[in-house]
Fold this protein.
Amino acid sequence: MNEVAALLAAFFEATGRHAAMWERQSGESSLLLGASSALFATRTEVGMQSADPVVWAQGLGLCAHRVADRAIDAATDGWLVVEAGDSGESDALLVRLVPQLRRLTRERDGATAELVERYEEISLLYAIGELLGGTTSVEEVADTLLRELAVTVGASCAVFLQSDPATATLTPIATLGLHDAEYPAITLDDGGHIAMAVYRNGGAITEVGALGRPADPILTARGGALLAVAITRPSTGVGITGTHQIPIRRGIGGDIRATVPLGVLVLGGRGHDQPFTAGDRKLAFAVGTQIGTALHNATLVRAAVERQQLVREMRLAHDLQLKLLPKPSVVGPEARAAARVVPAESVGGDFFLLARLDRDRTGVLIGDVSGHGYQSALVMALALSAAAIHVQAAFDPSRALDAVRRSLDDELSSTEMSITMCYAVIDSRAGEVRFANAGHPHAFRVGADGQCVRLTAVVPPIGFSDAPIEECVMSWRRGDRLVFFTDGITDARDGRDRRLGEGAVLDLLTSMTHGESPETMLAALFAQVEGHTRRTTLRDDLAAVIVDRPFEDRS
């Protein structure tokens, strides 16, 4: 049952009157959005095809109300059909509720899709890093390239040999058309083998007839010519093939170390003993150069990953992670907010969430995943996605945090990680703040007089306990502000390893009693951290979010 149908079913239970909601576009058939019963939906379907649904409904003793929704296209009519009765107020209320429900549903679905796209955005970034970091797919690439090259030049069997500095051999990593035959590794001192000959000269060699048989007995067992080509890359002057040294060759202008082979391609089994042509050699050499460049680049990327020097990918991960976080303006115009996250590494585990729940209520959440770096960032993305969904589904802070805990239970259990999290809802109409705090130490209500009141944690961090999460309430007055931050701020160290400490932060907050905006307070807080640490490397992620509601409460 969708949301509209659920609302209409509740309307029937309250009033005893059936209702159906239809959407009608010009030139198209009517669409049922929901009904209190299938029978009543069928009963009203004919009326949605009439020129005037109001007149049609009156003829059957029903009431038809046009439902206006600016979010629906102007060419679309919404019609709410209700059984006749003397409860005009309930009809009017239903007419107002239906478009609001649909609008909230669309906003929820849109937010979920965006989060999936973005989460999905915090998960693709990591898969590419894994692919570049461990070239276990070289064998698959070798099979594909070997097959495509063999088909192009008309070979029926082939082998892809890669240099192995540890064993001083050329080792087969892919073969084609050998069936049950096993192709052995070629030692670098086997000067009679065609693969070793081409490896030494860094070019391409063809053999045909009787000369080809001793050059490669396995590939010539079925007859035909041989073509061998070195897998090369431009030389850097640094040998990467173990003790074997690529010979310096003479050329115009002096001694030139032209290429550094990384392996060899050998092809054979060409039909009718036809020789490989010069064009075949040129093509194979070009392919070998391309493969060599790819293999060399893969080696460099793997080394860079091992040394954690993938700066570009890490910067991209950082940017994508920050894009997951909402803009402070989402809670306007009723509330003002400022927030900032600074990971200790390129990515981290601190996060915040802001939610405009309705005109009177603003949701504020902060979380801190244990540790920092990529693993914390992955858990952070999951936690943020879960929180964004659950705070919209349940305005009760304790229920929202409990739903987040259930969503993350398996992930936190398998990684042995935890999350401190505090979620508060400012209700300006009720003049109160309702909150639930799972182990987050630094959450405060700061009054206009500078008094700081802690939003005390009621349960341990998420991941440590399944204890019920209780909701707490405190008063909220005009001029009050919520200030949440993570322990990376209080634990920030200077050059002498001295902590900034919570006391210094609270002293700063209590001094700001002149109605400073959240942006001003946030800038002052991070300036305090930077002044304390100066150029000292951060040990933990930093995050802070500050929210106020500067407008008069409505009574």
